[in-house]
């Protein structure tokens, strides 16, 4: 299982800090810079740090093995999509149903929705921005092509449930 289950584990893309539509060049250069930082030979004498960096190093190597090869990457992408469809989606939520909390400057904000476990589903404006969604007050725009409704899966802060947030596009 790539995602879901009890504990969320990072995707190979996240390990290499890549977008899932990254080009081969981007994957290679991110792999190279990541491997320089985490190479076990470069770790200090602190045992714990060494253990952690070896683990990271292996994850980076593995990510590169999968993503660096177009055929294994295509397989991995398929698995990733399939596993996401299996995630437990508790509810479909419209944007208007989300609570909103703004910072004092009124620039950054977080949207939240209560989960049945007592915690909340959260998404911040910067996370939305990374996904190409910008919210200015109540106006929602989207960069990129295609004026389709966007759906985002938001995980709960405590349990494994998720909601599907529907974002209309003007
Ligand atoms: Zn929950």
Automatic annotation (TrEMBL):
Q: Name one GO cellular component term.
A: cytoplasm
Q: What GO molecular function annotations does the UniProt record carry, in alphabetical order?
A: ferric iron binding
- The answer on whether this UniProt entry bears the keyword Iron reads yes
GO BP terms, alphabetized: protein histidyl modification to diphthamide
Q: Where is the J domain?
A: 11-80
Specify whether Metal-binding is a keyword of the entry: yes
List UniProt keywords, sorted A-Z.
Iron, Metal-binding, Nucleus
Question: Domain DPH-type MB: where?
Answer: 89-168
Domain of life (superkingdom): Eukaryota
Q: For this UniProt entry, what is the primary localization, expressed as one broad class? A: cytoplasm
Q: Subcellular localization, per the record?
A: Cytoplasm; Nucleus
- Which protein family is it in? Belongs to the DPH4 family.
- PANTHER family noted in UniProt: DNAJ HEAT SHOCK N-TERMINAL DOMAIN-CONTAINING PROTEIN (PTHR21454:SF47), DPH3 HOMOLOG-RELATED (PTHR21454)
Q: What is this protein called?
A: J domain-containing protein
């Amino acid at each position: 299982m790539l995602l879901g289950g009890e504990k969320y584990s990072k995707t190979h893309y996240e390990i290499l800090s890549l977008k899932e539509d990254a080009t081969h060049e981007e994957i290679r250069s991110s792999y190279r810079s990541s491997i320089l930082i985490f190479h076990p030979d470069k770790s200090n004498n602190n045992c714990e740090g060494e253990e952690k960096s070896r683990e990271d190093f292996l994850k980076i190597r593995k990510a590169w093995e999968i993503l660096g090869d177009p055929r294994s990457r295509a397989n991995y992408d398929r698995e990733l999509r399939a596993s996401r469809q299996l995630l437990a989606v508790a509810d479909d939520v419209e944007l208007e149903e989300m609570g909103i909390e703004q910072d004092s400057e009124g620039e950054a904000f977080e949207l939240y929705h209560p989960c049945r476990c007592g915690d909340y589903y959260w998404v911040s404006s910067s996370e939305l921005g990374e996904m190409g969604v910008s919210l200015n007050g109540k106006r929602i725009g989207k960069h990129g092509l295609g004026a389709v409704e966007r759906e985002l899966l938001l995980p709960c802060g405590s349990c494994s449930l998720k909601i599907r947030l529907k974002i209309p596009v003007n």
